[in-house]
Amino acid sequence: MTLSLYIQKYGGTSVGTLDRIKAVAAHIASTYRQGHRVVVVVSAMGQQTDELLEMALKLSSNPSQREVDMLLTVGERISMSLLSIALNDLNIPTVSLTGSQSGILTDNNFGNAKINRILGDRVRRGIEDNKLVIVAGFQGMSEDEKEITTLGRGGSDLTAIALTHSLKADRCQIYKDVDGVCSADPRLVPTARVIPSMSWDTLSNLTWYGSGVVHNRGVHLAKKYKIPLEIRSSFNLETHGTLIGSVKPVEKAVVHALTHRKDLAWLRLDSCDSSKIPEILSFLFTQGEHPLFIQQNSGDAGNWVELVMSQHAVIKFERYVKASHDSSSLRVLAQNLTCVTAVGDGFWQEPKVIEKALQSLGKPTVLVDCKNNVLNMFMQHGNLEEILGRLHKALIEA
Does residue 299 carry a pLDDT above 80? Predict the structure, then answer.
């Protein structure tokens, strides 16, 4: 009989304390004792990544990204070792491996590295030896220079999904501190509900426009290789969570969920034609930043590019523009913006959905961007709980 191979990923809150590590270890041990082979991917404990980064920034306002990556990967090494110790105490044989020991080979982009390939020899050897393998998420090793790299915030999800593909695992279970993918942030909208199933496209849109439930690049990888995902709670193990995969399309317009991003700036880059856009986007993506909106104009009114991006990234972007596009000038059209996004299907077929959304906001917008499956509403900061609550009631609860 061929035994099933499970990839289980546990986020920082799930392993945030020693008691949580013990609870997670008991659940993992139960899966292992059912006869399954198990590879576990762990994040750093709680807010440890933020705490380590804060220490670096206290020493330097612009620390070397190589050294930052060396520093931050310590967090996952701590959690993987502690989890291994807890499982050993339950008589479960384990081996813990860093990203580099697991053969996760990346490019050289410190802080936001892309996975080139996974060798996985030591992971497979551990599985063959009937050991439960624990892999440090969020990290790898550059293929050319053999440097330690990180995969960007939330990169442990990406580690788990990439390992699922590489090892041809049967299931990929991502354990979080929520019961599944919800129709809105339950901390802001008490009536938000868990969505039982969702397409890769819908989850990709949610994570692109603000939801942190799963790493966006991980969702893209899952869609590319048709990997079903189970988003589950490590705190409420009886719940079924959300299954991500292929979902039969419906013609009727529907809003699946709401998400949001705060602290955004709307910028205009004057004297900039469309040929520069790929270069600009390439710079932003390597910095781990992606615009929520981009528009280009060419003609008698001038050549310019407008984009909306995180406010904290504006200073670095200004430096880039001055260094690489000296003929262009950057203007801030608006700042302190919030983007509230409705994700669904068929918006263009039934414009009343868009009308209802804008009427329900109760607040003027400074910019609206609509696609068939995404409606972005940009506005000045306001009471987000009220705004999301009204939209959720009108678009999802109705």
Answer: no
